[in-house]
Amino acid sequence: MAKLTILVVDDTPGLLKLEKAIFESAGYAVFTANNGVEALHTLAVHSIDLIVTDILMPDMDGYLLCYNIRITDRYKNIPIIIYTATYTSKSDQALAMEIGADMFIRKPVGSQTLLDAAKGTLSAPPKNGRKTFTQPETLDVMRKYNARLIQKLEHKVTELEEAREQQQIKEHRFREFFENAPEGITILDLKTLTFIDYNNNALRLLKFTGEELLKKGPVDISVAIQPDGQPSEEKARQYIGQAVAGQKPVFEWTICDAEGKEIITEVRLASLTAFNCPQLLASFVDITERKNAESIREKMTADILQRNKNLEQFAYIVSHNLRAPVANIIGILNLMSVRKLDKKTENEMNGVLLTSTSKLDDVIRDLNYILQVKSTIDEKKELVSFSDLLEDIKTSLAGPISTGNVEITGDFSCVDSILTIKSYLYSIFLNLVSNSIKYRRQDAPSFIEISSITNGNGVTLAFKDNGLGIDLAKRGDQVFGLYKRFHTHVEGKGVGLFMVKTQVESLGGDISVTSEVNKGTVFTIML
Q: Sheet holding 29-33: strands in order across?
């Protein structure tokens, strides 16, 4: 037995495919058409047992298709089911039945309901036959059809006008928010990576005119390298990729305004999808003051921690370095007060007493000097030349340099001067150069290389030698400690490097060290 055939007519591809699958699953042969014109062409070629059609379609709608089928002798007895989601009122149904539909179904319904409707329509033709039209009836139906179509169009126009008004209200609200937002806002075209819109706060922060800003992109208003050392172009690409993927990244970003001033900002990105071309909304606020305050707070915290550490170290010095000479003095005085000593012993005790007193005086003098450096930094800053300073050091240490056959070179081609306290910088140079001479190797010609480079707004100094070096794995935490010594074959007190670190920090800088035994040492100072 041949399969019954159904023609499904709908201009929505997804629904057309779904209805075809439903009917085929029940054993029907199914043809499809996207509108009434295509449906009539299919009817002219194939034998069709049932038509299931939508109403709202281009070229020819379901009403006209139904009418054309009923006025054509070849097709007039084919049953028709109207299956619609747009024309759903009672008057829509009445007009469909008057034009010749066998059944009227409002979308959506379950697949079984649709199959039952098809089966019922195929098995039970109308008792009085299907609709035919006389000339007056045709005119009346077409009049009703046109009136209904106009009514639908007017309703659709009203809906579109209301939607347009709502859209205008939304756009107005968005524009008000956009312009009055406390942060700077820009919109980025992801195809050209240039800005296509901005608010007034963006112009105020960046100090560009609107015309200038529309010629730029994110990289154009950013510093070349972000504070973490990553190039702005590379980092911007990463954040844009995150936003396009649906994330809403929030991050710190250093920009550069029209006057060249660097500004630390907090940036938020969001992808805008309701546009013909891909766009990105970027909002940013100036957090420079906040970051500066955080930096000051962190510096104060670090300073407090360092002061506490220094106090602990001073307590250690008092308990150890002062106790020994004091104990000696007390012991000798007690001995001399209870016993009458012979002249020789008395002289010996006086010698020990003098030595202990001298050691006590040395420790007190060292502590006093350290405290003076830490508590006073009142000297006026001046522009100090590194090359001139090195020449002064060479003059001061001419004897040891000549005796030790030490070669000292300075490379200050990148930067040769800094605004600082000259006496502090002189002391730093003197201590580091003296140490390199004092702890040189005897088996190789000695050299000391001093160089300078810029580091953003500051200067980095490097003091490199090929001396005895320090075993940092064992003694790294003691390098800048007070009274810490690593080589005892020459005279020393263990104060120099402690003072270097103290003075560097007093100037607002940092010092670090790398070293290898019998290879040499490099001290790096950032000012």
A: 29-33, 5-9, 50-53, 80-84, 103-106
CB atoms within 10 A of CB 106: 15
Domains and CATH numbers, the chain: 5-133 (3.40.50.2300), 181-286 (3.30.450.20), 295-375 (1.10.287.130), 382-526 (3.30.565.10)
User: Burial, 419: exposed, middle or buried (Cβ in 10 Å; 0-12, 13-18, 19+)?
Assistant: exposed
479 vs 331: CA distance, rounded Å: 34
pLDDT in tens, 285-332: 999 888 888 888 888 887 788 777 766 666 665 665 566 667 667 777
Three-state SS sequence of 209-230: CHHHHCCCCCHHHECCECCCCC
Three-state secondary structure of 229-295: CCEHHHHHHHHHHHHHCCCCCEEEEEEECCCCCEEEEEEEEEEECCCCCCEEEEEEEECHHHHHHHH
CA dist 166 to 154, 171, 177, 273, 275, Å? 18, 9, 16, 19, 17
Query: Angle at which helices 135-180 and 90-99 pack, to 10 degrees?
Result: 140
Is the pLDDT at 342 greater than 70? The verdict is: yes
Greater confidence (157 vs 363) lies with 157
446-455 vs 406-411, strand pairing mode: parallel
Kindly report, residue by residue over 462-493, the tens digit of the pLDDT: 999 998 888 888 877 777 776 666 666 666 56
* 0.85 surpassed by pTM: no
More confident residue, 176 or 211: 211
Are 511 and 523 in contact by the 8 Å Cβ rule? The answer is yes
Helix (H) or strand (E) segment spanning residue 36: helix 36-45
The 3-class secondary structure across 53-78, one letter per residue, is ECCCCCCCCHHHHHHHHHCCCCCCCC
> Contact at 8 Å (CB) between 66 and 80?
yes
Q: What is the mean pLDDT of residues 221-231?
A: 91
Query: How buried is 280 (Cβ within 10 angstroms: 0-12 exposed, 13-18 middle, 19+ buried)?
Result: buried
CA–CA separation, 214 vs 442, rounded Å? 67
- Give the tokens for residue 224: 């070349």
Q: Taking the CA of residue 108 as centre, how many other CA atoms within 13 Å lie in the half-sphere pointing to its CB? A: 6
Residue identified by tokens 């370095």 is: 321
Two structure tokens written together for 142: 């077409």
What's the one-letter identity of residue 240?
I
E strand or H helix at 43? helix 36-45
Q: How many CB atoms lie within 10 A of CB 302?
A: 11
